[in-house]
Fold:
Amino acid sequence: MTGAAFLPDAADQAEIAVVRYLLARPEARDTAEGIQKWWLPQSQQYSTAAVELALERLTRLNLLSVWSSASTEPVYGLRSYQRDALLDYLKKLESTRHGG
Structure:
């Protein structure tokens, strides 16, 4: 399974892209599929697994909220109190990626 070796880096990139999108559009809400299609740069292909891993990480860190119902897929987005924490997290991610 050679493609699995690239998953963490792809998930890292997806995670950064989701965070940037939400910081620019804090009212945005969408499903994982919608996030993959509409929020992430189309110049790079993100696998469903990478997007789901990125959303799982952000949710686990309480940086992303999830709204669920029996009739729809989970919807991801921010609550107002998460914005500052999300900005701090992005700075951490970017400094880690750039070796700082």
